[in-house]
Fold:
Amino acid sequence: MKNPNPVGSDAPGVLSGRLSPADYARNFCDSHAPLNVSQALIEADRCYYCYDAPCTKACPAGINVPSFIHRIAQQNVRGAAEVILEANELGGMCARVCPTESLCEQACVRNAQQSKPVEIGLLQRFATDTYFVDPGKPLFSRAALSGKTVAVVGSGPAGLTVAHRLSRLGHDVVLFEAKDKLGGLNEYGLASYKTTNNFAQSEIRWLLSIGGIEVKTSQKLGRDFTLSDLQRDYDAVFLGMGLAGVNALGISEPDVNGIREAVDFIAELRQANDKAEVAIGRQVIVIGGGMTAVDAAVQAKKLGAREVTMVYRRGESAMKASQVEIDWARSNGVSIRHWAAPKAIVAEQGHLQGITFAVTHEQDGKLVETGETFTLSADMILKAIGQTYLPEAAGASLQLRGGRIAVDEDGHTSLPGVWAGGDCVEGGLDLTVDAVRLGKLAAFSIDKTLRASEGASPVALSVEESCHG
Structure:
C-alpha cells in the first residue's frame, strides 16, 4: 500500500514511502565502515602472530588468522585473501556477519593486555573486499577430473562450500536451488545494511568461476525431483536445504493485515529495488530474541516505524542474539522487553490493534506464566521465533534427530551416498561460518568415499600448496 500522505508522515497503519529518498539511502548504507589501507596496516601491526594461535583455534572454518594478517602487514593483500578463501570460501560474507566478538576476537591474546582484541573481522573484510575488486588470475584451480558427479541441494553457505570444494577436488557438481537466486540466507535472510552493493552475488560469482558447477535454479526437492532420483542419477548427494518452516506463535492469529513472518519481511527488503516500496507499520512488535528478530526490528526502525519493540519470553542472557547485536538494536531505537509470552492478538473490525502478553518467569528451570498480562499497541507484528526443518521434502527415509537430519561427524546421513550439512542437520548453529565448517567436513568425506570406490587417493587441499603470496 503506497503512502498517500506526505513523506515523513506519522500516519497509522502499514504504509510504504514513510521516508525521503535521502533517509532510505542513509539508513540502509553499510552499517559498519570498512578499513582503509592505512587503518588496515595499523591494525595488522597490532597482531603478535602467535604460534599455535588461539584465534585460529576459535575460528570454526579454521582460518590461519596470524598468517593472513601478516600478509596484510606485508601489503600482500592477494596472499591474505588466498589464506582466508582457502579455509573459507565465504570469507567475505563471514567478515560481515560472523560474531567475531565471541569467536576469534574473544580468543585474541590482546584482550589480556589492552582489553581490545585485534579487529580480525575488519581485517578479513579488508583482504577479501580488496581482492574481489580486482581478482586477477584465479587463486585456485581444479584437480584432475574424477569422472564423478555430485548433486548438491541448496545453495546456502553449506551447499556453496561443498560445491566449490568438490569442484576443486576434480568432481563435477550440479547445484539445485529452489529459489531463483543462489545464496540461501546470505541472499535472502540477512539485514540489507550488513551486505550492501549486492555483495552476496559478487561472492557467488567468484565461487562459481572455478568451473565444473552446473546451476539449476527454481528446482525444489520433493516437487521437481526426489531424493531417490538423485541417488539414482549421481555418484553422491549433499543436502543443504536449510530450514524452510517457521515456528507458530501457538495462539490464534486473525486474518488481518500487518502480521508477518520476520524472514519474509527481511527477504522482501533484500530483494527490493527501492526500499521505499516496502511497507512498514507505525508501531511494530517483533516477537523473538535471535539474530533474525534483531535484523527485522532494526530494519523496521530504519524504514520509518515510530516505535519498534522486541519482546522475548525469557531474560536477556537467554537471547540467541549476540550482545553486540542486542546493543546495536538499542542504539537504533529499538526497545526490548523480556519475560513476556504472546497470549492473544487484538484486532477490531479487521484491523490489527495490538497484542496481549503474559508475564513469565523461570521456576525450577521451566518457563511459567505469573498470571499477569499486559497489552502493547501495534499495527504490525513480525514473528521471529525460529525456523524448522521440513522433513517431507527429502522423504521419510532419512533418519532425524531433534527434528533435523541426523548425521555423523563427517556429515553422513543414515542413507548410503547421502551427506547433509548446515542448518538442516542436528546441531546446525544458524551461523554462516558454522555452515562452512560442516560443508568442508562433508566435502572431504564425499571425496574420500568417491575415490575409495575407485581405489584412488584423496586429493590434498592445503594453504601451503595453494598460497604463493
About this structure: Confidence is low (pLDDT under 50) at residues 462-469. The CA atoms of residues 310 and 336 lie 5 Å apart.
